[in-house]
Amino acid sequence: MTVPNLTSFGSRSRRYLLYAGVMGIFGVLTARLAYMQVYGTAEYGRVSELNAVRKIAVEPARGIIYDRYGRLLVDNRPYYSLTVTPKAFDTTRTALLAGLLGKTPAELRRSVAEARVYSPFAPSRVARDISFATLSAVEEHSWQLPGVEVVIDSKRHYPPGITAAHMFGYLNEISQTELAKRKADGYRMGDLIGSSGVERSYESALRGVPGTKLMMVNVRGQQVGEYDGGSQNIAPVEGRSLFTALDADVQRVAEFMLTGRRGAAVAIDPNNGEIIALASKPDYAPDSLSGVIPRDLWRRLNTDEEKPLYNRAIQAEYPPGSTWKMVLAAAALNDHIITPTWTTYCPGGFTYGGHYFRCTHVHGTINVTGAIEHSCNVFFYQLMFKIGFERYTEYGRRFGFGARTGIDLPNERKGILPSKEYFDRIYGVKRWTPGYLVSIAIGQGEVVTTPLQLAAYAAALANGTTWYQPHLVREEGDVFGNHREPVAYESHPLNISPEAMAVVRNGMRLVVESGTATNIRMPDLAIAGKTGTAQNPHGDNHSWFIAFAPYDHPKIAVAVLVENAGYGATWAAPIAQAMIDQFLNRHLSKPLPGYIGLDSLKVTPDGGGSPVAPVRRNRAPSPARAAAARATTPTQGR
Hints:
Helix content is about 35%, strand content about 20%. The protein is of the alpha+beta class.
């Protein structure tokens, strides 16, 4: 019997298994190759195409801003920027490109490194608003600069006539912190974003929606044409335009009369809270912060002791002085603490707690109407103790004090409305006496307000029933004014009787007719107003004036502050008068020396017209403005 060779049998089996494994691998590879050749051509062709296609963001036109009469306030102008796509950029050309741009190689490397962190494949701006000479030089060396492209951007343009820099605001390149928050909204490194003013408040509306353009690129990373004839491009959606309530003529008058001083002027429609004018001085030329902001200019604006970037209309806080007195009068009359005929005697001063508080004059026996007309401090000292601290605070709140108005501008301050709780916190419980109330009775001491708050207060006094939230923008819509959507705003009732308001308003009418502001009396227009002088421990007192007109059917309410100018009638009142005159008559009844209106303003050849930045102040008042203020002899008043 023959024994089988088991060793030989095992070897053949292993060979068969090895052959089967090898044939299986070849089968899989063949099947995969067949799939790629037959079925994968379209897919991999698309991937190959995308490797040669660059997605370019297309910036939308930013929304335009108009005044109440449809006049252009803020527009767009094109300029050139330079982008670099880090993945395609030849870093050995850094010195060449930096030299063309007037930068150091280190500065350019830093910009490219930041762009690479954001996205190696996306074009990022490394230079904005380049000159035509720089553009030409870059184009001349384009064959040496793969991944470098010139794009057209736009910057804000301001037709001549008004400055309104604090109201418009400016754009700035988005910061890394902001980019991290807004990347999901489509913002990219190098994008411009509203940094202040309405540009910031209405950023989402003004910006629009970016589009995309697919561009074919060659091996050097240079664009050679649109992909698929542009059929895959997505057009940008331009930003929504803003239709404001601003009257450019009134704004120009306010800015002209405040030139050379520190101060603010705000005009409001008392029937709805719309801002007619909002001026703050000193300021800066908005054109100077459009496009690339020079570092030395930015440093000067931020270190200037006159604070031209500071919006005094909504941020500066001052004691309101005697403009506050109508709060006490309304409270006492509405709560029947006094009657319109109730009188007290003013000997020229008031003694309380061993301290003597002066009045402006010896007024003798005087009632509430006369106390407003002649700004009698003694009357309101005594009235404060009759109404009490709680009513003082309550009625202050009704008129909007101690809280932000909610205007559609960023960084508004809320002022201070004193209360018992506030005094307890500041001075300590039972560590202050009723004597502390004497100063706040006439708008001095701890009570502080902004010019905007006083303008809203003047508007509430004008209509007599309602406090309206101030707002600049009436409507949003397209550039042609179609499909407009009104902007919502708030209001609340004063809950003060018509009888009480009638007495208060009549006192304000007499201020101009025969009281402390007769210097602004007009023959054909009844103006109601109130002078105020805010004490300033660091220098000359501040000049306040609030007003509304026409008296019977008010259409405009104004608050004006001039720092270190003394009595309210001297400087602030003539500014308010001119603003009212311009708005109601559409021209100035009495020309201001040196003033050129918008209708006759000559445009410079380069389209300029705004003052240089920053505008200085506090030199001697110009002869033109001094003559205008002294046109009639002012009556000194509180």
